[in-house]
Amino acid sequence: MQLVAVADPSDVAQAAMRDIVPGIGCFRTPEELFASERLDVVHIITPPASHAPLARMAIKAGCHIYVEKPFTESVEDAQQVLDEANAKGLRVCAGHQLLYEPPTRVLTQYLPSIGRVVHVESYFSFRTVRHAPGGRKVLRADHQLLDILPHPVYLLLQVLEQAGEGRTELLSLEVSQAGTVHALVRRGGVTGTLIVTLEGRPVESYLRVIGRNGSLFADYVRSTTQRAIGPGSSGIDKLFAPYRQAWQLLTGTTSAMASRFLKRQRSYPGLAELFTAFYESARHGSPSPLSPESLLETVRICERVAKALKVGEARALAAAAPKPVESRGVLVTGGTGFLGKEIVRALLSRGRSVRVVARREPSPWERIPGTEYVVADVATGASADLFKGVDTVIHAAAETAGGWPEHQRNSLDATEHMIRGAAGAGITHFVHVSSLAVLAQGTGQPIPDNHPLEPNSKGSGPYVWGKLESERLAVQLGKDLGISVKVIRPGALVDYRDFDPPGRLGKRLGNIFVAVGSSGDRLGVVDVGFAGRCLAWMTDAWDQVTSPLNLLDPVSPTKQELLDRLRRANPDLSVFWLPRFVLVPLSWLATLAQKVLRPGKPAIDVAKVFSVLPYDTSGIAKLAPFVDSNIPQR
């Protein structure tokens, strides 16, 4: 196939396409594309709401269509697209590439061997994406759930279609607000279960099929299929079955990963194979690789889940009704984040009204009752409406991923717009949340709140650079604009209620934790709940808080104490220590490699990233009793 044209309103996207396919025709709208090009196949990879109208437009132009999943948002739209394509003899395909991955192919090959199917289970757990390249907005959690939902649905339907006869029925459906779907699906005499979850860990994607003569387990994370063919009812079978399946898992995973590495596969597995099958059906007039029935049934189940989420959304919105911010309000940026949520809860408990500004609309069940949420990208500006009824701003938003441009935009630019906007609205109290990472290396003595900043701001990577330069910018703009700016530098945030180790402790690799340094080293961490309460308390005790303030636990825990917490929740965890005298030469080699492989770019000092500095916690220790007593300091 020859790629001849693309329609995209983004100049950046068009430029990227020209780099990939020199000479490709680029158009801003699909109408311009269809008017200028004679096309055989159109791939529709736009947001889901646009799939149906664009598909019908392409069919009208006489094109076979490939539509990225979800195919459409409603069964009515799906039926209309399929009917129009059928009337013109055109082929329709959707992004159901897992059907062409090796695990599905092997499972399909051995399915007759396990006899009559008695149970099918399709399971998918995943971690939501929180950051996108270039500062693009990401889908909120429930929309990400709907985005991946077709994969486990069409896998389940594929087996049910092969194993059962008659119509497919959705017998029951439960959708939790936290993002877990349970469904019971029947076709003829075969019933299958569907489980999709944002919460379950570890991340897994599998299809399990159990028959009267064995079982099959297709693993889409490791790209393997384990077979247990035979009744397996004898003592010998029960004894050797685990070893046989373990051997299949070991050899299969090794082979799959080696194959993927050697092929240097850049696309999703199964995608090229699906395209090939679709193009062949269009070229020869043979049936599409996906039947109209499978497309319709996949959309039907996904539509039911979407409706259930809508019902839950309405209930959650009613439960989280906001209170208007009219006076003594606090504006919080980053209020949907790890620290931000704790700040908001603490402010509400103190009787303050709260407005949260976020780049994307939070899911209704992510909202804190009584909080007003406003969607705005402060990296491009802060309108006067954001500050109505507000007397204090807590600026906790910052970029946490990506490269230098992302941190320039979402840390530095956002800070400047927020301070200038606050000044324009007459607000004089502004809390800038920075980081301990901005401080220079110490001399071995406890580091006080007024310790000098790191002189080489780019030496520890984009995150530290963004935090350091935005702190400098906040302090300078505060002086220039007459705003009282308090700089608060939280240590590494931890949640002792649901402990996850801070980065400076080391790195987890499966069930092995590589701890860096010495067990007696004390880490500058702060409990996220205490940090939120402290920042909220500051709004009522402004003159009593010095700036800058290093926000830490009043007594810094040792690395061993933190590891003990981690192991209590992870009893199978093995800990290995990487002493600093070993880390330092490794860091030198890493720095040299970066300079050779990335000339002209700042090299990150790994030893510096994992360095442990002693902190003077006397300042925060004096404030802690007042913070936790929920009364202003006197």
Automatic annotation (TrEMBL):
Entry keywords, A to Z: Oxidoreductase
Domain Gfo/Idh/MocA-like oxidoreductase N-terminal: 2-96
Pfam families: Epimerase, GFO_IDH_MocA
Superkingdom field: Bacteria
Residues covered by the NAD-dependent epimerase/dehydratase domain: 330-497
SUPFAM superfamilies linked: NAD(P)-binding Rossmann-fold domains
Keyword set includes Transcription: no
Matches recorded under PANTHER family: CONSERVED EXPRESSED OXIDOREDUCTASE (EUROFUNG) (PTHR43708), CONSERVED EXPRESSED OXIDOREDUCTASE (EUROFUNG)-RELATED (PTHR43708:SF5)
Family: Belongs to the Gfo/Idh/MocA family.
Name by which UniProt lists this protein: Oxidoreductase
Species in which this protein is naturally found: Nitrospira defluvii
